[in-house]
Design a protein that fits this description.
eight-stranded mixed sheet; six-stranded mixed sheet; 21 helices; 40% helix
């Protein structure tokens, strides 16, 4: 449920100190991107930072990051349980979002971050995030019509809610492209509050000027807001634009004008565009981008669309669709931790598209199957533009499971294949960031160290297909320097592999081993390229979320300009020795 107010969240956090400073970001559109820009700049200058944005992308805990790495499920659940117990003991009746906000703040305090970049959930004045005690800067992005039933029916009413994040003596950075009436509301509220206001645009940021031609108009506005806020928070770094420019160029913000590779799903070689446009203002931005970059010679566009109930989808579709376009409609499933969010029926989406003259032959009802929607869209678009847009949510409940959690569930269902006692099930921790088998071994090793009092394992037991032994043990464990006499391997061959009848699979095994023998850490174009394709969400591949943890671990590594972290070759690693 959505129940705005600060009493419950204030009680939840009554005994939780806030030793970190906050940059608080409100607005209708662009606030998530501003948060991403800010954390990218902070990390470029080695400032320890947390980020809390909503809603989550895949798992509930991925909306909370520390130094650009999503917190682990185990850490998230530890602090969530703490907050939930407090809520029950005090009989506060806190909402799901209030519990999530308190969990994020507890994690930031525990991690001793220097700065927390906090995105408002809904509105501003009465949003749970407004319980922040220490704000360095506040930011108000572009304001539009959204959530009118909670915030008001006019831009001016909504602006007054957003302005509620201001504090006396705290600078507020405001997107200067907002309408004059919105800016007047914010200016008046600042005068009453005692906050200082800066209305900004591309011309107010040297960083934006450096990248002007690389950015879309709305991106220039968002980056200008973020850069100005960063300069207020850290004036000593105000002129380090070279470092910041390189960092921004390498940034990935999932779900916003993101190019996605779906070749493994449908065979389509051309990238598709993914954007979470879910209100008329964001749809206008997406439509402008599509018209400028994808509709060459009036080429029709094929859309895969989903929407939440209550959204002004008619206005959104009017902005997106052109004569000749095609639409596949799909429904998403329940959103974890957000029971009030419900998917619009796919047939209703197509009914609105039909009213805008999209031909019946150019419509497809995928119901809840995103796979069938993508396959139909791939066939329909051929080599033409394909866009996935709308409210981004899980299209089936299984998509909330990581690959690691899926394997853990399989092992549990099969009594761990007799390898460990069933009583060990509650102790299982899943590593959820690996993009290939090498990363799986290395990140699992580091996860063990983090979860077991900074102690490295004496032994590793790998359970996999028998034909992968050479790759996993000889290649990967050998490359990272884990003593092979302390590695156990349990191999189970699928049909056709043990007897050699599956020639194609056997050939693939040889090719994979050859690639890893030639490039043991996967730094080259082929293996690094595969990782990049498998990481459309921009999940951090840093081995450690903090420099302090990296130093304490004793792991010798190097971080490249592209943000990838690799073990230093030829250097002994801490797991090479017995504890």
């Amino acid at each position: 449920m959505i129940d705005l107010g600060l009493a419950r969240i204030t009680a939840l956090l009554k005994h939780t100190p806030q030793t970190w400073r906050a940059i608080h970001v409100a607005g209708t559109n662009g606030k998530g991107s501003i948060c991403a820009y800010l954390t990218t700049m902070l990390r470029a200058k080695n400032v320890s930072c947390g980020r809390f944005t909503s809603p989550h992308l895949i798992d509930r805990w991925d909306c909370i990051t520390v130094n650009d790495c999503a917190v682990s499920e185990a850490r998230f659940r530890h602090f969530e349980d703490l907050v939930k117990r407090r809520n029950e003991e005090q009989r506060l009746g806190a909402s799901e979002f209030e519990l999530l906000t308190a969990t994020a703040f507890e994690i930031f305090e525990s991690e001793k971050v220097e700065v927390g970049v906090i995105e408002v959930g809904l509105g501003g004045a009465l949003d749970a995030t407004n319980a922040l005690r220490q704000k360095s800067v506040t930011v108000i992005s572009k304001i539009g019509l959204d959530h009118q039933s909670f915030l008001g029916s006019t831009l001016e009413e909504i602006a007054s809610q957003k302005a509620g994040i201001m504090r006396a003596g705290v600078p507020c950075i405001v997107d200067g492209s907002n309408s004059r009436s919105v800016l007047d509301v914010i200016k008046d509220y600042a005068a009453i509050t005692g906050a200082t206001v800066e209305f900004v645009g591309p011309q107010t940021s040297e960083l934006v000027q450096n990248m002007h031609d690389e950015l879309e108009p709305h991106q220039r506005q968002n980056l200008a807001c973020a850069h100005n806020a960063f300069q207020f928070a850290y004036p000593r770094y105000a002129h380090d634009t070279g470092v910041l420019t390189r960092a921004i160029r390498g940034m990935v913000w999932p779900g916003r004008l993101q190019l996605l590779d779906i070749e493994r799903l449908t065979g389509r070689k051309a990238a598709v565009l993914l954007d979470g446009a879910h209100n008329p203002q964001s749809a206008e931005v997406l439509a402008a981008y599509v018209d400028k970059h994808l509709r060459t010679n009036n080429t029709p566009v094929t859309y895969v669309l989903a929407a939440s109930e209550g959204k002004d989808l008619t206005e959104i579709l009017k902005l997106l669709l052109r004569p000749g376009d095609s639409v596949a409609a799909v429904e998403f499933g329940p959103v974890d931790g957000m029971p009030w969010v419900r998917s619009m029926k796919s047939e209703n989406i197509l009914g609105l598209a039909d009213g805008l003259s999209v031909a019946i032959s150019s419509q497809f009802d995928a119901h809840t199957s995103v796979q069938s929607a993508l396959e139909w869209a791939t066939r329909t678009a051929n080599e033409g533009p394909l866009v996935i847009a709308g409210s981004l949510g899980p299209t089936r409940k299984e998509t909330r499971l990581s690959e690691a959690r899926s394997y853990a569930n399989l092992a549990t269902a099969n009594s761990f294949f007799g390898i460990i006692p069933e009583s060990s099930s509650p102790k299982i921790v899943c590593e959820g960031r690996a993009l290939d088998s090498y990363s799986n071994v290395l990140l699992s090793l580091i996860q063990f160290w983090q979860d077991h009092g900074n102690v490295w394992p004496e032994q590793i037991t790998i359970v996999s297909h028998a034909f992968k032994r050479e790759r996993l043990v000889d290649c990967h464990c050998g490359a990272i320097g884990f003593p092979l006499d302390r590695v156990n391997f349990v191999g189970i061959d699928p049909p056709g592999m043990a007897d050699g009848t599956n020639e194609a699979a056997a050939k693939g095994v040889v090719e994979a081993v050859t690639q890893w023998l030639e490039d043991p850490h996967g730094k080259g174009n082929v293996l690094a390229g595969k990782r990049k394709k498998r990481n459309p969400w921009g999940v951090s591949q840093l081995l450690f979320s903090t420099e302090e943890g990296r130093k304490r671990s004793g792991v010798r590594s190097e971080i490249r300009e592209d943000g990838q972290e690799y073990l230093s070759e030829g250097s002994p690693q801490p797991w090479s020795y017995s504890n």
